[in-house]
Design brief:
By secondary structure, this protein is α/β, with parallel strands linked by helices. It has ten helices and twelve strands. The protein has three domains: about 5-85 and about 270-290, Rossmann fold, CATH 3.40.50; about 110-175, ATP-grasp fold, A domain (Dna Ligase, domain 1, 2-Layer Sandwich); about 180-260, no CATH class. The radius of gyration is 20 Å and the shape is globular.
């Protein structure tokens, strides 16, 4: 008889779901239903409840993002808890960690600079930086529209750095702007599931920034190459459930410009739900069987 496993499902706080609150809730609930249908139990917790009280369940799946929640989950994992995604991977997907790790692993990525928002103007002026650029808060994902900004000149860059500093953002990542087709992707490591599309054509957007690269030209690329690059990035960042964005240039080169732990999967939720539930059960039942021996 199959052993019943009791899971904790920790929801993402709405402040970390800009313009996607319903979608984020739907994917987590869908995964929970699939797991319950396999004869297991799922106890739901809000991110706030987890920060305050933690959980007693050893097996966890979660979309949490709050820094205090991440640290608490890391502590539980160090004590033997199993989580998808791992809190260590969730932390790796914050902008500065992600940029450093992908570049160090030689995953295709735009040229980037990581700087402080205070006292950096001379450094920026002396660098051989070509405009336009993207400036992004380094400590976290984009929560507000202003957390990712397209800048066309040094003057504009300085004003945005000053505005970030006033908001208490101490460090930023600056990426070169890449011309080409913007492609959004979703994947689940260890499953056949992989999905990509052009967000411009689907009018899929959090903050409307997809308009910058404009209508896709349909530059040719190999889907298997894209999937391999994305799975490699997921391995480097230590996440199993992921999504993100890349630019496909006119010569077919693929560069990842953003990578996220467990996004909403809004355009492909049904297929993704099945894949996510299967990878959670595969990873956690493996640990359960090991413990029984």
């Amino acid at each position: 008889m199959k052993k019943e496993i009791v899971f904790a499902a920790i929801q993402r706080h709405t402040s970390y779901s800009p313009n996607h609150i319903g979608n984020d809730s739907a994917i987590l609930n869908g995964v929970a239903k699939k797991i319950i249908s396999q004869g297991h139990k799922v106890h739901f917790y809000t991110e706030q409840e987890f920060i305050t009280s933690g959980v007693t369940e050893r097996y966890i799946f979660t979309m949490l993002r709050n820094k205090a929640a991440v640290k608490r989950l890391q502590s539980l994992e160090n004590q033997g808890a199993i989580s998808v995604n791992s809190a260590f991977g969730i932390e790796n997907c914050t902008r500065e960690h992600m940029t450093r790790l992908l570049i160090d692993a030689k995953v295709s990525h735009p040229k980037s600079w990581i700087i402080n928002t205070h006292g950096v103007f001379d450094e920026i002026e002396n660098e051989d930086i070509l405009y336009p650029l993207w400036i992004k808060r380094a400590d976290f994902h984009a929560i507000h529209r202003e957390d990712v900004t397209f800048v066309r000149s040094l003057t504009h860059l300085k004003s945005i750095l000053a505005e970030y500093a006033l908001r208490g953002i101490e460090r930023v990542v600056i990426n070169e702007h890449l011309e080409g087709d913007l492609v959004k992707f979703y994947g689940v490591v260890g499953t056949p599931f992989f999905y990509w599309f052009y967000p411009y054509l689907n009018q899929h957007s959090k903050f409307g920034l997809e308009e910058i690269n404009g209508k896709p030209q349909g530059f040719s690329f190999q889907e298997e190459d894209l999937k391999a690059i994305c799975n490699r990035a997921a391995e480097v960042l230590n996440v199993k459930v992921y999504g993100g964005d890349c630019i496909v240039s006119s010569d077919g080169k693929i560069n990842i410009i953003d990578f996220n732990d467990w996004p909403s999967f809004a355009p492909c939720r049904e297929e993704a739900t099945e894949a996510i539930a299967s990878v959670i059960l595969k990873n956690i039942t493996k640990h359960v069987s090991t413990e029984k021996k």
